[in-house]
């Protein structure tokens, strides 16, 4: 993805990851009062952010870095693949409208391909890994149970490689990465790799899809 890697768009011959129809999680979190937060990584954060910005019940979806330290939470450093960070998205949501488990269902279905190890589509490196960063023990429990459920259901042709990484801090990405899909709908990388994810969200989750994205307004 990346501004550097996408300069000449070697992705021109690539196709977006195919969506998968996956079952809803058997185990989920109850809808408590107040907003909740999920942090998910699934390749380039442009597309993952774009997907969740179109999900009803999501209050905000912010691109950033999770897994490493504060001093290396910057695009150039993360791009080396040596910081421990993954490009990730912090999703703040209203659990009375959309549950944590349902967000995971969307994540595993249309936001990325959980069978690609340390990569997504044309992007390679640990910074593009499939990872869930639970905010508490219950999120970790739900995520672990759901991965087990999907493995047992055999909905993918390959093994799920998504990691659950608790106790990590999310750091917002630079301002020019925020709302990138909405702001750059004709950018070749977005057209090839990410707009199909939005179409798949609308097709597979019509009750959850909202046409107007909820955008990040305050960026560093």
TrEMBL record:
<comment type="function">
    <text>Has an important function as a repair enzyme for proteins that have been inactivated by oxidation. Catalyzes the reversible oxidation-reduction of methionine sulfoxide in proteins to methionine.</text>
</comment>
<keyword id="KW-0560">Oxidoreductase</keyword>
<feature type="active site">
    <location>
        <position position="44"/>
    </location>
</feature>
<dbReference type="InterPro" id="IPR036509">
    <property type="entry name" value="Met_Sox_Rdtase_MsrA_sf"/>
</dbReference>
<dbReference type="GO" id="GO:0008113">
    <property type="term" value="F:peptide-methionine (S)-S-oxide reductase activity"/>
</dbReference>
<dbReference type="InterPro" id="IPR002569">
    <property type="entry name" value="Met_Sox_Rdtase_MsrA_dom"/>
</dbReference>
<dbReference type="Pfam" id="PF01625">
    <property type="entry name" value="PMSR"/>
</dbReference>
<feature type="domain" description="Peptide methionine sulphoxide reductase MsrA">
    <location>
        <begin position="37"/>
        <end position="187"/>
    </location>
</feature>
<protein>
    <recommendedName>
        <fullName>Peptide methionine sulfoxide reductase MsrA</fullName>
        <ecNumber>1.8.4.11</ecNumber>
    </recommendedName>
</protein>
<comment type="similarity">
    <text>Belongs to the MsrA Met sulfoxide reductase family.</text>
</comment>
<dbReference type="GO" id="GO:0033744">
    <property type="term" value="F:L-methionine:thioredoxin-disulfide S-oxidoreductase activity"/>
</dbReference>
